[in-house]
Design a protein that fits this description.
Length: 525
């Protein structure tokens, strides 16, 4: 993988197990799970994890891999209390490294000065350990030594230095990192781009004010020979939102790598707006179905009616159900009524996801022609289709759908029941009150929540007592929805007051009085 590392072995920094050899080694975090202690490098390599593992008696994660002659004390000599390290084979160099490891735990200037001197050592192992320990200090003192390491002859050291600089919010590192974007090693180039982005995001809480010196190098990186570098450049340009990148990004839509094209489309949607309409329409013919799907989705986000006809063609002709489904969704976002008839045909597509997306799109467009086909689609065997149809009928707002939606409140699928309950928030027909009251007992919390919301909108006093009965629902969102509904029904800012008064009134009476028939004494005239 990295021939220049053929003299080094990697040991687990937590327990010292190894050597693993070169087959799994990579600069930075490799996310290897140790067979001995079970720690994942880059995630669990902390002193706390080590202490917990030792406290449990140092159990083996993969018991079948435990050597018969295993010696914990001997193995621990190769660990460094949670700090990542490359241990070379040469014994003399190992002794130097062992001495330097302790410096990583001393938080004073002598640590940095000593490590800075090691960066000039002719032994690459010494420099490697020094830059890794500098990476752990993470404050302004190490900026200059890390910048120096960006010019080291060893590509692994250069990459670690670039990765380390991203954790320090200092713009002095930007220019050296821009220089490193031209490194001969693709991993260094990619890491440098990520570092520039991370520095700006951490410093300003956003990337909009990024040092503009980085824009042109990032644009050049869109033509890098390594696809990972091109992908990273495209993503970073999305955050910068510099209009200079639009034309180069449009050109990059023809990149040979599908991953690059995908990221470029996302970036163009973010910064290009209507200017990228035609390139995205052309991308509907991309050879990769994933990119055709993304192009359709982005056209929906742009929302221009000029995209309607190409999307209709994609909906009717594309051989990928994922692409057809996204085209249907995009047509719903655009809300062009030319799409109604094609979407009605898509309601009987052989693929359930396409039918579901078509139903959702018809709900967004809101054309009355869709009513009868949607009522029929409520019988679809696919749960997702019935759920989308239930929501779409609510958006159409036609009271003729009430009986069908009441039937949907008893559907076997909880999402269908939830969408049906939600639809009555817009179709406020009193025929739905009792079915919605029954839905307050549903096993699914989302159904109960939406039933409460719809009952609150209807403001029918029959719902007061049933809502009070679930005031202490185990789900927090349901409780919030119930309290809000009671406020609307009872006309009180604090329904608890009326509930308390009701209880007092009941205590004085021989007969329990339903709240729907009870009048607040303070409001009698």
């Amino acid at each position: 993988m990295f021939p220049e590392l053929n003299e080094a072995y990697y040991y687990c920094p937590l327990c010292g197990f190894g050597p693993f050899g070169l087959s799994i080694m990579s600069p930075g975090y490799s996310h290897v799970i140790c067979e001995c202690c079970g720690s994942e490098e880059g995630l669990d390599d902390t002193p706390e994890y080590r202490k917990e593992w030792l406290a449990k008696g140092a159990p083996w994660f993969q018991k079948s891999e435990k050597p018969k002659d295993w010696n914990l004390e001997k193995q621990l000599k190769y660990s460094i209390d949670g700090w990542n390290c490359w241990l070379p084979e040469d014994e003399k160099i190992r002794k130097i490294i062992e001495k330097k490891k302790s410096l990583g735990f001393i938080d004073d200037s002598r640590t940095v000065d000593s490590l800075d001197q090691d960066l000039n050592n002719e032994k690459r192992e010494v420099r490697l350990v020094a830059v890794q320990l500098l990476e752990r200090i993470r404050d302004a003192r190490v900026i200059d030594p890390l910048i120096k390491s960006l010019k080291d002859e060893d590509s692994v050291i250069r990459r670690i230095a670039a990765d380390a600089l991203e954790h320090i919010t200092d713009r002095n590192a930007i220019e050296p990192l821009i220089y490193a974007m031209n490194d001969e090693n693709p991993f260094v180039r990619k890491t440098s781009i990520v570092a520039i982005y991370q520095i700006e995001e951490r410093r300003f809480g956003g990337i909009e004010d990024i040092d503009r010196r980085a824009v042109e190098p990032l644009i050049r990186a869109l033509k890098d020979k390594d696809e990972k570098v091109r992908r990273t450049a495209a993503v970073t340009l999305k955050m910068i939102k510099d209009p200079r990148a639009i034309d180069p990004l449009i050109h990059a839509l023809k990149d040979e790598d599908a991953g690059v094209r995908s990221r470029v489309m996302s970036t163009l949607t973010s910064i290009g707006g209507i200017k990228v309409l035609e390139p995205f329409i052309q991308a509907l013919n991309d050879k990769d179905s994933g990119n055709r799907m993304q192009a359709a989705g982005h056209l929906g986000l742009i929302g221009d009616e000029k995209a309607a006809e190409p999307l209709i063609h994609t909906l009717m002709e594309d051989n990928s159900p994922d692409v057809r489904g996204m085209a249907a969704r995009a047509l719903g976002d655009i809300k062009d009524k030319r799409a109604v008839d094609p979407l009605l045909k898509a309601l009987i597509d052989k693929n359930g996801s396409v039918r579901a997306e078509a139903a959702g799109a018809l709900g967004k467009i809101g054309d009355r022609r869709a009513f009868d086909p949607l009522i029929e689609a409520l019988k679809d065997e696919n749960n997702s289709v019935r759920a989308e149809v239930s929501e779409a009928l609510g958006k159409l707002g036609d009271k003729k759908a009430v009986e069908s939606l009441i039937f949907a409140l008893k559907d076997k699928d909880r999402y269908v029941r939830m969408k049906a309950a939600k639809s009555f928030e817009k179709i406020m027909d009193l025929r739905a009150v009792n079915p919605l009251i029954e839905a307050l007992k549903d096993e699914d919390c989302y159904v109960r929540e939406n039933a409460a919301i719809s009952l609150g909108e209807m403001k029918d006093p029959r719902a007061a007592d049933p809502l009070i009965n679930i005031l202490n629902d185990k789900n927090a969102n349901v409780k919030i929805a119930v309290r809000r509904a009671l406020k609307k029904i009872l006309g009180e800012d604090k329904p608890e007051r009326i509930i308390r008064k009701k209880r007092i009134n009941i205590a004085k009476s021989d007969t329990q009085i339903p709240l729907s028939e009870w009048i607040d004494p303070e409001k009698k005239t």
